[in-house]
Write a structure and sequence with these properties.
Layout (H helix, E strand, L loop, with lengths): L15 E5 L4 H13 L5 E4 L8 H7 L3 H6 L1 E3 L2 H4 L5 E5 L10 E2 L1 H13 L4 E5 L8 H4 L4 E3 L12 H15 L18 H17 L9 H14 L4 H20 L1
Helix pairs in contact: 1-2, 1-7, 5-7, 8-9, 8-10
C-alpha cells in the first residue's frame, strides 16, 4: 500500500528522487536541501526506519522543508514506482545484474530526454548502511555508478543526491561554466588598447629603452603583441596610463 502526504501526485518535468528505507531523518533533510539547491522538489520516501513524518528531517532541511511537506510516503518500492516509466538505481558496487550502467552525467541526460518525451523518471537511493539491495535494483531499468575512489567508495546519502541533482541541472543547460565578474567596468576597446600601447612606446622611447636601434621594430612589435594578449578592462587601461604618468612625474621631480 502507498500513502502520500500531498493531495495529489502532480506530473512534473523533473525526476522523482526516491529514498529507499533511509535510516536517519537528518540525511533525509540534508537530501531535501541538496535537491532544492538544484531545482528538484519531488521526493518519495520509502519505509523510513524512524517513521514519517520526521522532526529530525525537518530540522536538517532548513529552507527546504516544503519538499518534506509535499513528499510522498510509500510503504514499499513497487508503490513508489507505480507511475514511473523509467527508473535509475544508484549504486557504488557491482551487482551481477544485466543492466546498462550510466555515469551520473549520462544518466541525467537520458532522464532529461525521457522526461521531455512525456515519461516519468525516478532515481533510487539506498539506505545509508549498505545501499540498495539487489531486489531493489532489479526493479530499475538502469544503474548509475559514480566514479569514486575504489578504496573508499561509500557516499553519504545526501552527497549522492547532491551529485545527481547537480548533474540534472547540467543536463538542463543551466550551468554557466565560466563567468567573469566585471566589477563595474567593461572590456577595453581596441582604440583604448592602441592608445595605451602608443603611450608606452613614446615614454619608453624617451627613456632610451629601445636599444640597440636595429632591434627597435621587433621590440615594439613584441610590446604590441603583449598588450593584445592581455584581457584588459577600461579600469586596467586607466591604471596603466596613471602608473606611467606618475613615473614620468617622479623622474621630472628628480
Amino acid at each position: 500500500m502507498t500513502q502520500t502526504t500531498s493531495s495529489s501526485v502532480q506530473p512534473a518535468p523533473i525526476p522523482a528522487i526516491v529514498l529507499v528505507r533511509p535510516q536517519m531523518g537528518e540525511n533525509i533533510g540534508a537530501a531535501a536541501r541538496a535537491m532544492w539547491n538544484f531545482g528538484l522538489d519531488h521526493m518519495r520516501v520509502v519505509a523510513p526506519r524512524d517513521g514519517w513524518p520526521s522532526q529530525s528531517a525537518v530540522a536538517m532541511a532548513s529552507g527546504a522543508g516544503r519538499l518534506l511537506d509535499e513528499a510522498q510516503h510509500c510503504d514499499d518500492l513497487p508503490g513508489a514506482l507505480s507511475d514511473c516509466d523509467f527508473t535509475f538505481a544508484t549504486t557504488a558496487r557491482g551487482r551481477d545484474l544485466t543492466k546498462p550502467v550510466y555515469s551520473p552525467e549520462a544518466a541525467m541526460r537520458l532522464a532529461a530526454e525521457k522526461i521531455a518525451a512525456g515519461q516519468r523518471v525516478a532515481v533510487l537511493f539506498g539506505p545509508e548502511r549498505a545501499g540498495l539491495e539487489n531486489e531493489d535494483i532489479a526493479q530499475a531499468n538502469a544503474i548509475v555508478s559514480v566514479p569514486v575512489n575504489p578504496k573508499f567508495a561509500s557516499l553519504n546519502l545526501a552527497q549522492c543526491v547532491l551529485l545527481m541533482s547537480y548533474e540534472w541541472m547540467r543536463a538542463q543547460g543551466e550551468v554557466t561554466h565560466v563567468v567573469t565578474e566585471m566589477a563595474g567596468t567593461d572590456w577595453a576597446k581596441g582604440a583604448e588598447v592602441d592608445h595605451l600601447a602608443r603611450h608606452y612606446e613614446e615614454r619608453l622611447e624617451e627613456a632610451g629603452f629601445f636599444y640597440p636601434e636595429h632591434k627597435t621594430a621587433s621590440m615594439k612589435l613584441n610590446l604590441r603583441n603583449m598588450w593584445s594578449r592581455m584581457p584588459l578592462t577600461r579600469a586596467d587601461v586607466q591604471m596603466l596610463h596613471g602608473i606611467l604618468r606618475q613615473m614620468v612625474r617622479w623622474k621630472n621631480k628628480g
